[in-house]
Design goal:
Distance between the termini: 26 Å
Radius of gyration: 19 Å
Number of domains: 1
Helix content: over 70%
Structural class: mainly alpha
Length: 273
């Protein structure tokens, strides 16, 4: 087993420990410590594989960075509210996605040959995906909480998500989940706007066109409109509940299609890397 693979497996093992502790509701302080160590080791994997003057980036690293940001936000929020239910959902994803870049390292970019806004655009875009990913997980939690409070049919059996979370015990109050959701969505919307602005300038410098009409641009813009519409509807008309859940999941799905989908097709299906 190579040293590089071990460096990817270490945070995966720590995430597994976090998952086990969150499922059994034990040692909240130990869970926070393990999560902090996992986040630190996970962040170190972003520079792997190492090549001087180059940076590897692709769909696998984007997914890994996305779940890292989601777990980081959960770790920060857990200082105020017990969010073990979120850890229960995120830890299995983190276990799988932290090792994915080892098998799909992506494209090696020569940093010295890139336009000035390439790295800022990449970083801001990754932050946008990460924050919106946490929003999608938060929306799933709200859906499970709403199902508990207001089942569509009295005799309806709980779904898979609700059953999984039930093993952890009671969910945080629905109002707390909703407040966190809209806080996360607002931050994600800011990052989406910054991604669009840096993308316009970067595209103008590189291709001579501010907004090339490809599927990545179209899906990103539509996702930004989705999120902006949700925030405006919440502030002006009090949108919440299932409307917020659907728009959040729809916006994140469009973001996945915009970049992760295109990189996956290029790297894995077409092998154009």
């Amino acid at each position: 087993m190579s040293i590089v693979l071990i460096l990817f497996l270490l945070p995966a093992g720590l995430y597994a420990g976090v998952w086990w502790l969150s499922l059994h509701g034990r040692h909240r302080a130990m869970t926070a410590i393990l999560l902090a160590l996992a986040l630190a080791l996970h962040a170190a994997t972003f520079i792997l594989p190492w090549q001087a003057g180059s940076f590897y980036y692709g769909f696998a690293k984007l997914l890994s960075a996305t779940v890292w940001i989601g777990v980081l936000l959960v770790w920060i929020e857990s200082a105020k509210v017990d969010l073990a239910s979120l850890a229960t959902l995120l830890a299995p994803l983190a276990i799988a996605l932290v090792v994915l870049p080892y098998f799909f390292p992506g494209v090696a970019f020569d940093l010295h040959a890139q336009p000035p806004l390439f790295v800022p655009h990449l970083i801001v875009g990754t932050l946008a995906y990460g924050v919106m990913f946490l929003g999608a997980i938060q929306a799933l939690l709200m859906a499970a909480a709403e199902h508990r409070l207001h089942p569509r049919r009295p005799a309806e059996r709980p779904g898979l998500l609700a059953s999984l979370l039930a093993r952890r015990g009671p969910l945080p109050p629905l109002m707390v989940l909703e407040r966190i959701l809209f806080r996360v969505i607002a931050i994600g919307f800011v990052f989406l706007l910054l991604t669009t602005l840096t993308g316009i300038v970067f595209s103008e410098e590189t291709f001579g066109k501010p907004l090339p009409l490809n599927h990545k641009t179209v899906f990103s813009l539509v996702a930004t409109v989705f999120v902006g519409l949700l925030l405006i509807g919440h502030w002006l008309w009090g949108w919440r509940g299932r409307t917020a859940i659907r728009l959040t999941l729809g916006g994140f799905g469009l973001l996945l299609l915009s970049y992760v989908g295109s990189r996956f097709v290029l790297e894995v299906v077409l092998r154009r890397i």
